[in-house]
Structures are given as structure tokens and as C-alpha cells.
Amino acid sequence: MIVVRDLHKAFGKVTAVDDVGFRAADGRITGLLGPNGAGKTTTLRMLYTLMRPDRGQVLVDGIDAAVDPTGVRRRLGVLPDARGLYKRLTGRENIRYFGRLHGLDEATIDARIAVLAKALEMDDIIDRRTEGFSQGQRVKTAIARALVHDPRNVILDEPTNGLDVMATRAMRRFLHQLRDEGRCVLFSSHIMQEVAALCDHIVIIARGRVVAEGSADELRAMTGEANLEDAFVKAIGTEEGLMA
Ligand SMILES: Nc1ncnc2c1ncn2[C@@H]1O[C@H](COP(=O)(O)OP(=O)(O)OP(=O)(O)O)[C@@H](O)[C@H]1O
């Protein structure tokens, strides 16, 4: 479970994240939805300890990121916005390398790679060098790498960015599988349909603040709009940047 309280981050005069708070529960997919520049990536970066908040608190399975960042990292699998793979290594070698960084033994790494390659349907590419991989193949490899240590909490920054319809559907199935295994899944997107199709809980963020949260049905009821698109527009207060 991930709990965020009163997070704040400014870059000079730009306030990127302004007192953001929410809870991402286990066995649920939570979506952070907002237009470009809303503060999603900055929020996620503070969650996975890449960036220090100006103030506020991040708790992962009850562990405070400011007190025990290593403990938090151990419990997190992260697909960051920059996917950077080692292009001279194969998919398997990229994943294995991360497994070693986590201190896993070779047999455990082999077993995890087998499970992840099957779940992500990457058996046909896993022993190819990642140089020349398509966008979808790169994302799959980066996700497998992020999950090699079997984390209970999974954070993904725009996981379907650049994926075609088939790859997006496969990604959705995979995220549902993680959820059904009881993990906490938190991802960001600026695509409303994406979030509506996938999430149990939606946190809408605009101009660095949480402006509404709930299930799709709750958001419709809250805004008094029958159509989800209209509900989002109302919550955000502008149509700017909402569409894919
Ligand atoms: N390192 C930085 N230095 C200066 N400004 C930054 C930095 N990182 C983010 N910002 C600013 O903070 C605001 C929030 O950016 P952020 O990347 O978190 O938004 P986002 O919701 O992830 O947007 P997108 O959907 O476009 O990725 C933006 O105005 C952005 O320009």
C-alpha cells in the first residue's frame, strides 16, 4: 500500500506539486490522471525516492521514504518515464543485471525471468539484443526488469505511451494480473479512456493538486455528469490537454 500526504515540490517559481495526498490500496489499480504538466511524473518521482519533496510524507507498506529510502525501494517496482535499456545486452541480460543489483541469486533470477517472460509474452524476443527493439518490446523489457525482485507495489509512469492497440490490451491484462495477485498498482496517464478502462480508483490531478478522486461511477455522481469525459472536464475545470 502506498500513502501520500501533503506532498509539495517547487522548481524555482514553478509549483509542480502542491499538497498532493492520496492512498493506493493493495489489490487495486489506482490511476493518477491529469493533463500534460499536471504534476504526475514529479509526484511519482518523489514516491520512488528519485526526488526529495519540499515537504510531505510518502509511506510504502508503512515505511517512511524519508526515514528508510532503501526499504521503500525494495518494496517498489518502478517503470520510470525514461525506459533506458542497455542496448548491447539481450532482454534476458538486462533483466538479470537488475536481479543481481537487487542481490538475488541466479536460480531465483532464472525463475523470475521465466514467469515474467510468459506473463508479458516476450519469449520470442527475450534473447535478442535490445538494440532495435520496438517501443512495445522496450516497455515490456523495462517492466520485466522493474519486477524482477517480485515487489508488492508497482509504479508505472505512462505505461502504454507509444503502444499500439494490441500491446495496450496485453498491458491491461498484465496490470489486472498484478492486481489480482494482491499487489498495489499505481500508474499515471493523461488518457482518460485508459484510466477509465483499467482503474478501480482514479485520482485526478490538475495544476499540481488533487481535484477529485473515486471510482469512475463515484466521479460521475460527484460531478453530476452522466458521461465520464464530461465529469473529467468538470473536475479539471478546463478541456485543455485532456485528450490523447
Ligand atoms: N526538473 C524540473 N525543473 C523545472 N521544472 C520542472 C521539472 N520537472 C517538472 N517541472 C515542471 O513541473 C510541472 C509538472 O511537471 P510533470 O512532469 O510532473 O507533469 P506531468 O503531469 O507528468 O506531465 P506530462 O503528462 O506532460 O508528462 C511542469 O510545469 C513542469 O514543467
Automatic annotation (TrEMBL):
The keyword Transferase does not apply. Gene3D superfamilies: P-loop containing nucleotide triphosphate hydrolases (3.40.50.300). Keywords: ATP-binding, Nodulation, Nucleotide-binding, Transport. SMART domains: AAA. Signal peptide: none annotated. The keyword Isomerase does not apply. It comes from the Bacteria. This is ABC transporter ATP-binding protein. It comes from Arenimonas composti TR7-09 = DSM 18010.
